[in-house]
Design brief:
Blueprint (H helix, E strand, L loop, with lengths): L1 H16 L9 E3 L19 E16 L2 E8 L8 E4 L3 E8 L10 E2 L19 E7 L4 E6 L5 H6 L3 E7 L9 E10 L9 E2 L4 H6 L4 E4 L12 E4 L3 E10 L4 E6 L3 E5 L6 E5 L1 E4 L3 E8 L4 E7 L3 H5 L3 E7 L26 H19 L17 H5 L1 H10 L1 E7 L2 E7 L8 H12 L11 H14 L2
Parallel strand pairs: 1-2, 2-5, 3-11, 4-9, 10-14, 13-21
Antiparallel strand pairs: 2-3, 5-7, 6-8, 8-9, 10-12, 14-19, 15-18, 15-20, 16-17, 16-19, 20-21, 22-23
Helix pairs in contact: 5-8, 7-8, 7-9, 8-9
The structure holds heme C and copper (II) ion.
Length: 459
Protein backbone atom coordinates (compact mmCIF):
# COMPACT_ATOMS: atom_id res chain seq x y z
CA UNK A 1 0.00 0.00 0.00
CA UNK A 2 2.89 2.31 0.83
CA UNK A 3 4.43 1.84 -2.64
CA UNK A 4 1.08 2.45 -4.26
CA UNK A 5 0.45 5.63 -2.34
CA UNK A 6 3.76 7.02 -3.45
CA UNK A 7 3.00 6.42 -7.11
CA UNK A 8 -0.48 7.84 -6.72
CA UNK A 9 0.80 10.92 -4.94
CA UNK A 10 3.04 11.53 -7.95
CA UNK A 11 0.14 11.21 -10.39
CA UNK A 12 -2.12 13.36 -8.31
CA UNK A 13 0.54 16.05 -8.08
CA UNK A 14 0.87 16.05 -11.87
CA UNK A 15 -2.87 16.40 -12.26
CA UNK A 16 -3.06 19.14 -9.66
CA UNK A 17 -0.62 21.13 -11.76
CA UNK A 18 -3.07 21.09 -14.67
CA UNK A 19 -5.56 23.67 -13.46
CA UNK A 20 -8.53 23.49 -15.84
CA UNK A 21 -10.40 26.22 -17.64
CA UNK A 22 -13.12 26.10 -14.98
CA UNK A 23 -10.90 28.14 -12.69
CA UNK A 24 -10.09 27.65 -9.03
CA UNK A 25 -10.04 23.87 -8.65
CA UNK A 26 -7.53 21.61 -10.37
CA UNK A 27 -9.17 18.76 -12.31
CA UNK A 28 -8.45 15.09 -11.71
CA UNK A 29 -9.89 12.18 -13.67
CA UNK A 30 -10.69 9.41 -11.18
CA UNK A 31 -9.09 6.08 -12.08
CA UNK A 32 -11.69 3.45 -11.19
CA UNK A 33 -10.86 -0.21 -10.57
CA UNK A 34 -12.96 -3.37 -10.48
CA UNK A 35 -14.12 -4.77 -7.13
CA UNK A 36 -12.78 -6.10 -4.80
CA UNK A 37 -10.07 -3.57 -5.71
CA UNK A 38 -10.02 -0.06 -4.28
CA UNK A 39 -8.40 3.12 -5.68
CA UNK A 40 -5.24 4.17 -3.79
CA UNK A 41 -5.51 6.52 -0.79
CA UNK A 42 -5.59 10.24 -1.52
CA UNK A 43 -2.59 12.37 -0.58
CA UNK A 44 -3.78 15.83 -1.47
CA UNK A 45 -3.71 18.83 0.83
CA UNK A 46 -6.34 20.72 -1.16
CA UNK A 47 -9.72 19.94 -2.70
CA UNK A 48 -9.97 19.26 -6.40
CA UNK A 49 -12.59 18.85 -9.10
CA UNK A 50 -12.77 15.07 -9.53
CA UNK A 51 -14.26 13.76 -12.75
CA UNK A 52 -15.98 10.39 -12.29
CA UNK A 53 -17.30 8.48 -15.29
CA UNK A 54 -19.87 5.76 -14.70
CA UNK A 55 -21.65 3.82 -17.41
CA UNK A 56 -24.79 1.80 -16.80
CA UNK A 57 -24.68 -1.52 -18.62
CA UNK A 58 -27.11 -4.45 -18.67
CA UNK A 59 -25.01 -7.62 -18.83
CA UNK A 60 -25.65 -11.36 -18.66
CA UNK A 61 -23.25 -12.96 -16.19
CA UNK A 62 -23.00 -15.96 -13.93
CA UNK A 63 -24.74 -15.50 -10.58
CA UNK A 64 -23.42 -18.91 -9.51
CA UNK A 65 -21.51 -21.63 -11.33
CA UNK A 66 -23.57 -22.56 -14.36
CA UNK A 67 -26.46 -20.11 -13.67
CA UNK A 68 -26.66 -16.91 -15.69
CA UNK A 69 -28.62 -13.81 -14.74
CA UNK A 70 -29.39 -10.52 -16.46
CA UNK A 71 -27.61 -7.99 -14.21
CA UNK A 72 -28.03 -4.23 -14.43
CA UNK A 73 -24.75 -2.60 -13.45
CA UNK A 74 -22.58 0.46 -13.06
CA UNK A 75 -19.45 -0.14 -15.20
CA UNK A 76 -20.29 -3.79 -15.82
CA UNK A 77 -19.61 -5.03 -12.28
CA UNK A 78 -21.68 -5.75 -9.16
CA UNK A 79 -21.06 -3.67 -7.14
CA UNK A 80 -20.06 -0.74 -9.35
CA UNK A 81 -16.55 0.61 -8.74
CA UNK A 82 -15.69 2.26 -5.42
CA UNK A 83 -15.38 6.02 -5.92
CA UNK A 84 -12.73 7.65 -3.70
CA UNK A 85 -12.67 11.41 -3.14
CA UNK A 86 -11.55 13.87 -0.46
CA UNK A 87 -13.68 16.04 1.78
CA UNK A 88 -14.30 19.34 0.01
CA UNK A 89 -13.80 17.94 -3.49
CA UNK A 90 -16.28 18.88 -6.16
CA UNK A 91 -17.27 15.70 -7.95
CA UNK A 92 -18.30 16.03 -11.58
CA UNK A 93 -20.27 12.90 -12.27
CA UNK A 94 -20.73 11.76 -15.85
CA UNK A 95 -23.41 9.07 -16.04
CA UNK A 96 -23.75 7.47 -19.45
CA UNK A 97 -26.18 4.72 -20.31
CA UNK A 98 -24.97 2.14 -22.81
CA UNK A 99 -26.80 2.24 -26.15
CA UNK A 100 -27.69 -1.44 -25.80
CA UNK A 101 -29.62 -0.88 -22.53
CA UNK A 102 -33.36 -1.46 -22.47
CA UNK A 103 -33.94 0.75 -19.41
CA UNK A 104 -33.24 4.31 -18.40
CA UNK A 105 -31.06 4.57 -15.28
CA UNK A 106 -29.95 7.28 -12.86
CA UNK A 107 -27.84 7.57 -9.71
CA UNK A 108 -28.55 8.49 -6.09
CA UNK A 109 -25.36 8.92 -4.06
CA UNK A 110 -25.84 9.09 -0.31
CA UNK A 111 -22.78 11.39 -0.20
CA UNK A 112 -24.78 14.06 -2.04
CA UNK A 113 -26.79 16.74 -0.30
CA UNK A 114 -29.35 17.60 -2.95
CA UNK A 115 -32.71 16.30 -4.20
CA UNK A 116 -32.66 12.57 -4.86
CA UNK A 117 -28.95 12.47 -4.05
CA UNK A 118 -28.42 13.26 -7.72
CA UNK A 119 -31.24 11.10 -9.04
CA UNK A 120 -33.32 14.19 -9.79
CA UNK A 121 -30.76 15.38 -12.34
CA UNK A 122 -29.38 12.15 -13.76
CA UNK A 123 -32.16 10.14 -15.41
CA UNK A 124 -30.44 8.88 -18.56
CA UNK A 125 -32.07 7.02 -21.47
CA UNK A 126 -30.08 4.38 -23.38
CA UNK A 127 -27.31 5.93 -25.50
CA UNK A 128 -27.31 9.24 -23.57
CA UNK A 129 -25.21 10.92 -20.88
CA UNK A 130 -26.06 13.13 -17.90
CA UNK A 131 -23.55 15.28 -16.03
CA UNK A 132 -23.96 16.93 -12.66
CA UNK A 133 -21.67 18.05 -9.90
CA UNK A 134 -21.80 18.00 -6.13
CA UNK A 135 -19.51 19.03 -3.34
CA UNK A 136 -18.46 16.27 -0.93
CA UNK A 137 -19.42 17.97 2.31
CA UNK A 138 -19.28 15.11 4.83
CA UNK A 139 -16.60 12.47 5.30
CA UNK A 140 -17.61 8.82 5.38
CA UNK A 141 -18.43 5.72 3.40
CA UNK A 142 -21.64 6.09 1.43
CA UNK A 143 -23.77 3.96 -0.86
CA UNK A 144 -24.72 4.90 -4.37
CA UNK A 145 -27.49 3.17 -6.28
CA UNK A 146 -29.85 3.51 -9.20
CA UNK A 147 -33.13 5.14 -8.20
CA UNK A 148 -35.18 4.66 -11.34
CA UNK A 149 -38.67 3.19 -10.79
CA UNK A 150 -39.25 0.45 -9.95
CA UNK A 151 -36.34 1.26 -7.62
CA UNK A 152 -36.27 -2.13 -5.83
CA UNK A 153 -35.92 -3.91 -9.16
CA UNK A 154 -33.00 -1.78 -10.35
CA UNK A 155 -31.22 -2.40 -7.05
CA UNK A 156 -32.12 -6.09 -6.98
CA UNK A 157 -30.49 -6.42 -10.39
CA UNK A 158 -27.17 -5.11 -9.05
CA UNK A 159 -27.18 -1.32 -9.42
CA UNK A 160 -25.20 -0.14 -6.39
CA UNK A 161 -21.72 0.70 -5.19
CA UNK A 162 -19.81 2.75 -2.60
CA UNK A 163 -18.31 6.22 -2.52
CA UNK A 164 -15.68 6.98 0.08
CA UNK A 165 -15.19 10.61 1.14
CA UNK A 166 -11.84 10.68 2.93
CA UNK A 167 -11.29 13.15 5.75
CA UNK A 168 -8.57 15.73 4.97
CA UNK A 169 -5.98 13.81 6.99
CA UNK A 170 -6.90 10.55 5.22
CA UNK A 171 -7.61 7.19 6.86
CA UNK A 172 -4.98 5.41 8.97
CA UNK A 173 -2.49 3.60 6.77
CA UNK A 174 -3.06 -0.15 6.31
CA UNK A 175 -1.36 -2.86 4.28
CA UNK A 176 -4.38 -3.90 2.21
CA UNK A 177 -7.80 -2.56 1.30
CA UNK A 178 -10.72 -4.48 -0.16
CA UNK A 179 -14.23 -3.70 -1.30
CA UNK A 180 -17.15 -6.04 -0.57
CA UNK A 181 -20.88 -5.47 -1.04
CA UNK A 182 -23.72 -7.70 -0.03
CA UNK A 183 -26.90 -7.88 -2.06
CA UNK A 184 -30.03 -10.04 -2.22
CA UNK A 185 -31.21 -11.55 -5.52
CA UNK A 186 -34.62 -12.90 -6.49
CA UNK A 187 -34.90 -15.57 -9.16
CA UNK A 188 -37.97 -17.48 -10.26
CA UNK A 189 -35.86 -20.66 -10.38
CA UNK A 190 -34.57 -22.35 -7.22
CA UNK A 191 -31.03 -21.82 -5.92
CA UNK A 192 -28.41 -23.24 -8.30
CA UNK A 193 -30.75 -23.99 -11.19
CA UNK A 194 -28.42 -24.28 -14.18
CA UNK A 195 -28.83 -22.15 -17.31
CA UNK A 196 -30.45 -18.73 -17.65
CA UNK A 197 -32.40 -17.70 -14.53
CA UNK A 198 -34.88 -14.83 -14.34
CA UNK A 199 -35.91 -12.05 -11.96
CA UNK A 200 -39.01 -12.83 -9.86
CA UNK A 201 -41.14 -9.93 -8.66
CA UNK A 202 -43.16 -12.13 -6.29
CA UNK A 203 -40.08 -13.18 -4.35
CA UNK A 204 -38.91 -9.55 -4.29
CA UNK A 205 -42.23 -8.45 -2.77
CA UNK A 206 -42.09 -11.25 -0.24
CA UNK A 207 -38.47 -10.26 0.54
CA UNK A 208 -37.47 -13.91 0.12
CA UNK A 209 -34.28 -13.92 -1.90
CA UNK A 210 -32.99 -16.96 -3.74
CA UNK A 211 -29.43 -15.73 -3.39
CA UNK A 212 -27.69 -13.51 -0.86
CA UNK A 213 -24.29 -12.68 -2.31
CA UNK A 214 -21.07 -10.80 -1.85
CA UNK A 215 -20.04 -8.88 -4.97
CA UNK A 216 -22.89 -10.12 -7.12
CA UNK A 217 -21.85 -13.71 -7.63
CA UNK A 218 -21.60 -16.80 -5.52
CA UNK A 219 -17.91 -17.62 -5.05
CA UNK A 220 -16.83 -14.14 -6.17
CA UNK A 221 -14.48 -14.15 -3.16
CA UNK A 222 -13.44 -17.79 -2.83
CA UNK A 223 -10.63 -19.99 -4.14
CA UNK A 224 -8.45 -18.12 -6.61
CA UNK A 225 -10.65 -15.04 -6.10
CA UNK A 226 -10.38 -14.99 -2.30
CA UNK A 227 -9.17 -11.89 -0.45
CA UNK A 228 -5.60 -12.41 0.75
CA UNK A 229 -3.35 -11.15 3.49
CA UNK A 230 -0.13 -12.10 5.24
CA UNK A 231 0.42 -12.81 8.90
CA UNK A 232 1.02 -9.50 10.68
CA UNK A 233 -0.63 -7.30 8.07
CA UNK A 234 -3.50 -4.90 8.58
CA UNK A 235 -6.53 -5.14 6.32
CA UNK A 236 -9.28 -2.60 5.75
CA UNK A 237 -12.61 -3.72 4.31
CA UNK A 238 -15.05 -1.26 2.82
CA UNK A 239 -18.28 -3.20 3.26
CA UNK A 240 -21.63 -2.06 1.96
CA UNK A 241 -25.09 -3.54 1.75
CA UNK A 242 -26.95 -2.71 -1.44
CA UNK A 243 -30.03 -4.65 -0.38
CA UNK A 244 -32.62 -4.05 -1.70
CA UNK A 245 -34.15 -5.71 1.36
CA UNK A 246 -31.87 -7.54 3.78
CA UNK A 247 -29.57 -6.07 6.41
CA UNK A 248 -26.26 -7.85 6.93
CA UNK A 249 -24.84 -9.26 10.15
CA UNK A 250 -21.33 -9.10 8.78
CA UNK A 251 -18.81 -11.42 10.43
CA UNK A 252 -15.52 -13.13 9.57
CA UNK A 253 -15.29 -16.56 11.14
CA UNK A 254 -12.12 -16.70 13.25
CA UNK A 255 -11.40 -12.96 13.31
CA UNK A 256 -12.25 -10.02 15.54
CA UNK A 257 -12.55 -6.57 13.99
CA UNK A 258 -10.03 -4.25 15.69
CA UNK A 259 -11.89 -1.19 14.48
CA UNK A 260 -15.30 -0.64 12.96
CA UNK A 261 -16.30 2.78 11.67
CA UNK A 262 -19.94 2.14 12.42
CA UNK A 263 -22.33 2.81 9.53
CA UNK A 264 -19.41 4.40 7.67
CA UNK A 265 -19.55 7.51 9.88
CA UNK A 266 -17.39 8.97 12.65
CA UNK A 267 -18.37 6.56 15.41
CA UNK A 268 -15.49 4.16 16.01
CA UNK A 269 -16.00 0.87 17.79
CA UNK A 270 -13.31 -1.64 18.77
CA UNK A 271 -13.09 -5.43 19.23
CA UNK A 272 -16.25 -6.24 17.33
CA UNK A 273 -17.34 -9.78 16.40
CA UNK A 274 -20.26 -9.00 14.07
CA UNK A 275 -21.28 -5.62 12.74
CA UNK A 276 -24.74 -4.78 11.49
CA UNK A 277 -24.81 -3.14 8.08
CA UNK A 278 -28.13 -1.61 7.10
CA UNK A 279 -29.57 -1.99 3.62
CA UNK A 280 -28.37 1.18 1.96
CA UNK A 281 -25.54 1.53 4.48
CA UNK A 282 -21.89 0.64 4.96
CA UNK A 283 -19.10 0.08 7.45
CA UNK A 284 -15.31 0.42 7.41
CA UNK A 285 -13.65 -2.51 9.11
CA UNK A 286 -10.01 -2.86 10.10
CA UNK A 287 -8.37 -6.02 11.36
CA UNK A 288 -4.89 -7.35 11.82
CA UNK A 289 -4.40 -10.89 10.53
CA UNK A 290 -2.29 -12.71 13.12
CA UNK A 291 -2.86 -16.42 12.44
CA UNK A 292 -2.55 -18.11 9.03
CA UNK A 293 -5.48 -19.97 7.52
CA UNK A 294 -8.73 -19.53 5.66
CA UNK A 295 -11.32 -17.25 7.27
CA UNK A 296 -14.89 -17.12 6.01
CA UNK A 297 -16.71 -13.86 5.38
CA UNK A 298 -20.38 -14.43 6.16
CA UNK A 299 -23.69 -12.81 6.81
CA UNK A 300 -24.21 -14.36 10.25
CA UNK A 301 -27.89 -14.72 9.50
CA UNK A 302 -26.16 -17.92 8.71
CA UNK A 303 -28.65 -19.69 6.46
CA UNK A 304 -27.77 -17.03 3.90
CA UNK A 305 -24.09 -17.93 4.15
CA UNK A 306 -24.37 -21.68 3.76
CA UNK A 307 -27.51 -22.02 1.69
CA UNK A 308 -27.90 -18.80 -0.30
CA UNK A 309 -24.31 -17.94 -1.20
CA UNK A 310 -23.25 -15.17 1.26
CA UNK A 311 -19.82 -16.66 1.77
CA UNK A 312 -16.35 -15.34 0.95
CA UNK A 313 -12.82 -16.18 2.01
CA UNK A 314 -9.91 -14.24 3.46
CA UNK A 315 -6.82 -16.40 3.05
CA UNK A 316 -3.97 -15.47 5.38
CA UNK A 317 -0.55 -16.87 4.52
CA UNK A 318 2.58 -16.98 6.63
CA UNK A 319 4.21 -18.86 9.48
CA UNK A 320 2.05 -20.70 12.01
CA UNK A 321 1.57 -18.87 15.30
CA UNK A 322 1.23 -21.73 17.82
CA UNK A 323 1.46 -19.33 20.76
CA UNK A 324 -1.79 -17.78 19.49
CA UNK A 325 -3.61 -20.83 18.15
CA UNK A 326 -2.80 -24.51 18.06
CA UNK A 327 -4.41 -27.89 18.39
CA UNK A 328 -3.45 -29.76 21.54
CA UNK A 329 -5.38 -32.98 21.10
CA UNK A 330 -8.51 -34.23 19.46
CA UNK A 331 -10.45 -37.23 18.39
CA UNK A 332 -8.62 -40.17 16.88
CA UNK A 333 -8.27 -40.12 13.12
CA UNK A 334 -10.86 -41.99 11.10
CA UNK A 335 -11.07 -45.68 11.97
CA UNK A 336 -10.83 -48.61 9.58
CA UNK A 337 -7.88 -50.14 7.79
CA UNK A 338 -8.69 -48.36 4.56
CA UNK A 339 -8.81 -44.92 6.11
CA UNK A 340 -5.92 -42.48 5.85
CA UNK A 341 -5.41 -42.79 9.59
CA UNK A 342 -1.81 -41.65 9.36
CA UNK A 343 -2.82 -38.37 7.78
CA UNK A 344 -4.20 -36.35 10.67
CA UNK A 345 -4.37 -33.23 8.48
CA UNK A 346 -6.56 -34.88 5.91
CA UNK A 347 -8.88 -36.24 8.56
CA UNK A 348 -9.16 -32.87 10.29
CA UNK A 349 -9.78 -31.17 6.99
CA UNK A 350 -12.43 -33.70 6.05
CA UNK A 351 -14.21 -33.12 9.30
CA UNK A 352 -13.95 -29.37 8.96
CA UNK A 353 -15.40 -29.38 5.44
CA UNK A 354 -18.20 -31.64 6.63
CA UNK A 355 -19.02 -29.36 9.56
CA UNK A 356 -18.77 -26.13 7.60
CA UNK A 357 -20.59 -27.24 4.47
CA UNK A 358 -22.28 -30.63 4.40
CA UNK A 359 -23.74 -30.57 7.93
CA UNK A 360 -25.99 -27.64 7.09
CA UNK A 361 -28.14 -29.98 5.05
CA UNK A 362 -27.13 -33.53 5.87
CA UNK A 363 -27.07 -32.59 9.60
CA UNK A 364 -24.14 -32.86 12.03
CA UNK A 365 -24.98 -36.49 12.76
CA UNK A 366 -25.26 -37.30 9.05
CA UNK A 367 -28.86 -38.40 9.45
CA UNK A 368 -30.32 -35.85 7.02
CA UNK A 369 -33.80 -34.37 7.33
CA UNK A 370 -36.90 -36.32 6.33
CA UNK A 371 -38.37 -35.12 3.07
CA UNK A 372 -35.51 -32.71 2.38
CA UNK A 373 -31.97 -34.04 2.77
CA UNK A 374 -31.03 -37.69 2.47
CA UNK A 375 -28.83 -39.27 5.16
CA UNK A 376 -25.13 -39.79 4.61
CA UNK A 377 -25.08 -42.07 7.66
CA UNK A 378 -25.48 -45.72 6.66
CA UNK A 379 -26.49 -44.52 3.21
CA UNK A 380 -26.94 -47.48 0.88
CA UNK A 381 -26.80 -45.01 -2.01
CA UNK A 382 -23.39 -43.71 -0.97
CA UNK A 383 -21.93 -47.07 -0.02
CA UNK A 384 -23.07 -48.71 -3.27
CA UNK A 385 -20.78 -46.45 -5.29
CA UNK A 386 -18.53 -44.08 -3.33
CA UNK A 387 -16.91 -42.77 -6.52
CA UNK A 388 -20.25 -41.55 -7.80
CA UNK A 389 -20.25 -39.25 -4.75
CA UNK A 390 -17.22 -37.39 -6.17
CA UNK A 391 -19.34 -36.26 -9.10
CA UNK A 392 -22.22 -35.37 -6.77
CA UNK A 393 -20.06 -33.05 -4.68
CA UNK A 394 -18.37 -31.55 -7.76
CA UNK A 395 -21.47 -30.93 -9.84
CA UNK A 396 -24.43 -31.17 -7.47
CA UNK A 397 -27.39 -33.50 -7.78
CA UNK A 398 -31.03 -33.11 -8.62
CA UNK A 399 -33.87 -35.41 -9.54
CA UNK A 400 -35.34 -38.42 -7.81
CA UNK A 401 -33.07 -40.73 -5.84
CA UNK A 402 -33.76 -43.44 -3.30
CA UNK A 403 -31.70 -43.68 -0.12
CA UNK A 404 -32.42 -46.45 2.39
CA UNK A 405 -35.79 -47.10 0.74
CA UNK A 406 -36.90 -43.48 1.05
CA UNK A 407 -37.35 -41.32 -2.05
CA UNK A 408 -35.88 -37.81 -2.25
CA UNK A 409 -36.47 -35.32 -5.01
CA UNK A 410 -34.53 -32.24 -4.14
CA UNK A 411 -31.40 -30.38 -5.12
CA UNK A 412 -27.87 -30.43 -3.88
CA UNK A 413 -25.69 -27.49 -5.01
CA UNK A 414 -22.35 -28.02 -6.77
CA UNK A 415 -19.23 -27.50 -4.68
CA UNK A 416 -16.69 -27.97 -7.46
CA UNK A 417 -15.63 -24.35 -7.40
CA UNK A 418 -15.77 -23.68 -3.69
CA UNK A 419 -13.85 -26.80 -2.69
CA UNK A 420 -10.46 -27.94 -3.89
CA UNK A 421 -9.60 -31.51 -4.90
CA UNK A 422 -8.16 -32.28 -1.48
CA UNK A 423 -11.14 -30.85 0.38
CA UNK A 424 -13.52 -33.02 -1.61
CA UNK A 425 -11.35 -36.13 -1.26
CA UNK A 426 -10.98 -35.57 2.46
CA UNK A 427 -14.64 -34.87 3.18
CA UNK A 428 -15.78 -37.95 1.31
CA UNK A 429 -13.14 -40.08 3.01
CA UNK A 430 -14.31 -38.65 6.32
CA UNK A 431 -17.94 -39.47 5.55
CA UNK A 432 -17.08 -42.97 4.32
CA UNK A 433 -15.24 -43.71 7.56
CA UNK A 434 -17.81 -42.22 9.93
CA UNK A 435 -21.52 -42.54 10.53
CA UNK A 436 -21.36 -46.35 10.25
CA UNK A 437 -20.46 -46.26 6.59
CA UNK A 438 -18.38 -48.99 5.04
CA UNK A 439 -15.01 -47.19 4.89
CA UNK A 440 -12.83 -46.47 1.88
CA UNK A 441 -10.60 -43.73 0.57
CA UNK A 442 -11.15 -41.07 -2.04
CA UNK A 443 -7.92 -39.43 -3.18
CA UNK A 444 -7.34 -35.95 -4.60
CA UNK A 445 -6.30 -37.67 -7.87
CA UNK A 446 -9.75 -39.26 -8.09
CA UNK A 447 -11.35 -35.83 -7.80
CA UNK A 448 -8.97 -34.34 -10.35
CA UNK A 449 -9.79 -37.17 -12.77
CA UNK A 450 -13.53 -36.61 -12.28
CA UNK A 451 -13.11 -32.90 -13.01
CA UNK A 452 -11.16 -33.74 -16.17
CA UNK A 453 -13.81 -36.19 -17.37
CA UNK A 454 -16.49 -33.55 -16.90
CA UNK A 455 -14.46 -30.94 -18.80
CA UNK A 456 -14.14 -33.32 -21.76
CA UNK A 457 -17.84 -34.13 -21.81
CA UNK A 458 -19.11 -30.57 -21.61
CA UNK A 459 -19.37 -28.62 -24.85
C1 LIG B 1 -27.64 -27.19 0.52
C2 LIG B 1 -27.84 -28.53 1.02
C3 LIG B 1 -26.75 -29.57 0.82
C4 LIG B 1 -25.43 -29.46 1.14
C5 LIG B 1 -24.73 -28.24 1.76
C6 LIG B 1 -24.83 -30.71 0.80
N1 LIG B 1 -25.76 -31.55 0.28
FE1 LIG B 1 -25.47 -33.50 -0.32
N2 LIG B 1 -27.40 -33.60 -0.91
C7 LIG B 1 -28.35 -32.63 -0.74
C8 LIG B 1 -29.58 -33.05 -1.32
C9 LIG B 1 -30.88 -32.26 -1.34
C10 LIG B 1 -29.35 -34.34 -1.87
C11 LIG B 1 -30.35 -35.18 -2.64
C12 LIG B 1 -30.50 -34.65 -4.05
C13 LIG B 1 -31.62 -35.28 -4.84
O1 LIG B 1 -32.71 -35.46 -4.26
O2 LIG B 1 -31.41 -35.57 -6.02
C14 LIG B 1 -27.98 -34.67 -1.56
C15 LIG B 1 -27.37 -35.87 -1.87
C16 LIG B 1 -26.08 -36.24 -1.50
C17 LIG B 1 -25.50 -37.55 -1.70
C18 LIG B 1 -26.18 -38.77 -2.32
C19 LIG B 1 -27.28 -39.28 -1.46
C20 LIG B 1 -26.87 -39.93 -0.18
O3 LIG B 1 -27.53 -39.68 0.85
O4 LIG B 1 -25.90 -40.69 -0.14
C21 LIG B 1 -24.23 -37.49 -1.21
C22 LIG B 1 -23.22 -38.60 -1.18
C23 LIG B 1 -24.03 -36.15 -0.71
N3 LIG B 1 -25.17 -35.43 -0.89
C24 LIG B 1 -22.85 -35.71 -0.13
C25 LIG B 1 -22.64 -34.40 0.32
C26 LIG B 1 -21.39 -33.93 0.83
C27 LIG B 1 -20.15 -34.76 1.01
C28 LIG B 1 -21.57 -32.61 1.14
C29 LIG B 1 -20.55 -31.62 1.66
C30 LIG B 1 -19.41 -31.40 0.80
C31 LIG B 1 -22.93 -32.27 0.80
N4 LIG B 1 -23.55 -33.39 0.31
C32 LIG B 1 -23.49 -31.00 0.99
C33 LIG B 1 -28.16 -31.40 -0.15
C34 LIG B 1 -26.94 -30.88 0.28
CU1 LIG C 1 -31.29 1.51 -13.05
Amino acid sequence: MRKFSFVFAGLAAAAVGAVGARGELPSIEEALVDPPGVPAPIHRSRPARVIVRLKTEEVVREIADGSRYDFWTFNGSVPGPLIRVRLGDTVELHLSNDASSRMSHNIDLHAVMGPGGGAAVSLTPPGHESVFSFKAMRPGLFIYHCATPPVPMHIANGMYGLILVEPPQGLPEVDREYYVMQGDFYTAEPYHTPGQVTFDIKKLLAEQPTYVLFNGREDSLTGSRALTSKVGETVRLFVGDGGPNLVSSFHIIGQIFDTVRVEGGDLVNHNVQTTLIPAGGAAMIELKTLVPGTFLLVDHSITRAFMKGALGQLIVSGPAAPELYRKISGEAPASGAASPAADGDASARGKRVFTQICAACHQPDGMGLPGAFPPLAMSDFLNADPRRAVGIVLHGLSGKITVNSTGYESQMPAFGRRLGDEDIADVLTYVLNHFNNKGGVIRAEDVRAARGAQAKNSP
